[in-house]
Design a protein that fits this description.
The chain has helices spanning 16-48, 51-56, 61-68. It is built from 3 helices and no strands.
Length: 79
């Protein structure tokens, strides 16, 4: 079995800190995408709930319609 190694080529003059910053930005971008996906799923789940279940958690159908119509990037917790 042949092993393959990933080689990261740095631009001339690039430093480890530049690479670290890039990795951090990439990590944040993936984390943000994950948060948006979570929001989308939660809003869809709310929209599928029965009126009885919504009443149990203190929400009306109007509350849910308002929440589920928000764009996926509109994060109420600003994460």
């Amino acid at each position: 079995m042949e092993r393959r190694h990933t080689v990261v080529r740095l631009r001339r003059g690039a430093t480890e800190s530049t690479l670290d910053k890039s990795v951090r930005h990439l990590y944040r971008a993936f984390a943000q995408l994950g948060r948006w996906r979570q929001l989308s799923k939660e809003r869809a789940e709310l929209a599928r709930m029965s009126d009885d279940r919504l009443r149990d958690i203190g929400l009306s159908r109007a509350d849910v319609l308002r929440e589920s119509s928000r764009p996926f990037w509109d994060d109420p917790m600003k994460r």
